[in-house]
Design a protein that fits this description.
With 152 residues, the protein is an all-alpha fold. The protein contains six helices and no strands.
């Protein structure tokens, strides 16, 4: 038995679903009154993620007879952390460079929560309504969905 499962070929139908999900989310953010179903795009991403994770775990189980959660999370970290931490670092630098010190504490708290994959909980603790126009968004508010995905 092999040590790791073989990579499968790129799945065009999954790329098409991802593209449709992105377009739903973008349409919602540009035209929130008209594109009311933008949240469906996020749901599609969660379903795709669950499908791909399940597929990977099943392939590893078939190839090795076991599932290594340490290897699974190491691969995930190598894929997600470089881009996520780059975005968070840029947001931290921009927060300090471009905003007044009065905003630093809240913004840096949300950046930290995002880095720890608990931004959804930080937003909930602040009673942030994602859809409320009166709530000032944080530069990392969209990390809520990544936080939810990592917590599942």
């Amino acid at each position: 038995m092999s040590d790791t499962p073989q990579r499968s070929e790129p799945r065009q139908e999954i790329h098409a679903l991802r593209a449709a999900a992105v377009l739903l989310v973008i349409a919602y953010h540009f035209w929130p009154g008209q594109a009311r179903a933008g949240f469906i795009g996020v749901d599609v991403f969660f379903v795709i993620s669950g499908f791909l994770i399940t597929d990977h775990v099943v392939r590893e189980l078939r190839a090795t007879g076991t599932v290594s959660f340490a290897r699974f999370y190491a691969r995930r970290a190598r894929r997600i952390l470089p881009a996520a931490l780059t975005v968070l670092a840029a947001c931290a630098v921009a927060t300090v460079a471009l905003s007044s010190a009065a905003f630093w504490s809240d913004q840096l708290r949300h950046i930290t929560a995002s880095a720890l994959f608990v931004e959804n909980w930080a937003l909930a603790a602040d009673s942030v309504d994602y859809l409320a126009a009166s709530d000032a968004p944080t530069p990392v508010q969209h990390f809520w969905s990544l936080s939810v995905e990592e917590q599942k």
